[in-house]
Amino acid sequence: xxxxxDSDSSDHMFLLTLAVRIGPVVMIMLLAVEFFFAxxxxxxxxxxxxxxxxxxxxGAYKLFGGLARATGSVLFPSGAGTPAPREYSEQEALVIRxxxxxAADSYRAIIExxxxxxxxxMRLGSLLATECRDPAAAEVVYLEIRSLKPTAQQDWxxxxxxxxxxxxxxxxxxxxxxxxxLSRRFRNTDAGASARRRLKELHDEDAGTGxxxx
Length: 214
Fold this sequence. Notes:
single chain, 0% strand, disordered N terminus
């Protein structure tokens, strides 16, 4: 598969993403205002609303796209300063269009170039577990994150993704292992206490002193 590159196609993907995300919201707001003030004219104003929505989306694209380019070329012309967080508009656009395998391959390409990119791994794991329906591959991705020194939030999110997966699969042994590890790593937090409570419930169920979930 040909790897996605930062070119004019990325601008098109960014425009598509904006259209999908803010277009419906703008359209609904316009229709709501018109229905409140002039309900009899809603149908007549439908086409103008579509045109206005398109102009607003295009304006947002020019504004945000221009700011991003200006930040890179004017504020940090020599690469100095703190870089902006990486965006994944290309991959998100592929997901929106239902091209899940291509999106997953694109995330893998990013990870190949940036092995320590935990954010890309988190996104890949979520994509594999949901749209791609490949929990085994998602599990591998989430487990790999642990060797990359994730932040506490990244550790918590990836661990909970595994806990949810093991719960759905009925894999009680792995579920208990994951809860035990989470309770140790977050021992002095509410999250750790919650993990310990759930782990105790599982042990009680196995011992016949607790109720198994229906």
